[in-house]
Amino acid sequence: QVQLVESGGGLVQPGGSLRLSCTASGRIFSINAMGWYRQAPGKQRELVASITSRGNTNYADSVKGRFTISGDIDKNTVYLQMNSLKPEDTAVYLCNADLVRSSGYRKIRDDYWGQGTQVTVSS
After folding, report:
1. Which of 103, 112, 85 lies closest to 20, judged by CA?
2. Which pairing describes strands 57-59 and 67-72: parallel, antiparallel, or unpaired?
3. C-beta separation of 50 from 113 below 8 A
4. Which tens digit of pLDDT belongs to each residue from 33-72?
5. Cα–Cα nearest to 101, from 114, 110, 92
6. Nearest-5° angle of CA 45, CA 120, CA 3?
7. Less packed terminus of the chain by CB within 10 Å, N or C?
8. What is the 3-state secondary structure (H, E, C) of the chain?
């Protein structure tokens, strides 16, 4: 099947930076878009940033100017560079992929999630 593996989370002081990576593997035919969501305790999951296969990006207002999403299509990998981190950025960050997978002779569009990586911004 398909797996998403995230890396790069951790503890950082306010104003610091982190870079998250997410790689999709498996029987992938094509990727339509990948993105990062986050979920803090007691809050709903929210979109942080996304990028399409054409390179179009979308950001939450709260991260514009601080976070940058980029993708390496050949490696099925998406990155999230996070700068000027704030305590309110603390959350579990989850990678999402909207892709088409191969199943025998069929091509099936599906939505996949990674297990999440913790980002904690604290002094």
Report:
1. 85
2. unpaired
3. no
4. 999 999 999 999 999 999 999 999 999 999 999 999 999 8
5. 110
6. 55
7. C
8. CEEEEEECCEEECCCCCEEEEEEEEECEEEEEEEEEEEECCCCCCEEEEEEECCCCEEECHHHCCCEEEEEEHHHCEEEEEECCCCHHHCEEEEEEEEEEEEECCEEEEEEEECCCEEEEECC
